[in-house]
Amino acid sequence: MSRRKRGTMSEEFKYELAKDLGFADTVEKEGWGGITTKDAGNMVKRAIQIAEQASRKGQ
User: Does the reported pTM lie above 0.85?
Assistant: First the structure.
């Protein structure tokens, strides 16, 4: 099974999520490889919440 080579979230959106979740400074200093697995998981959860809210508003 191959992995996707490109992400589905824009860099801008990911950075906004990082700011909201409080680890944008780590991203600035160390790049995306510097965040914890927990932080990455929290980003995904938050992105899903935002998508669900947008979906509900569009219905």
Answer: no
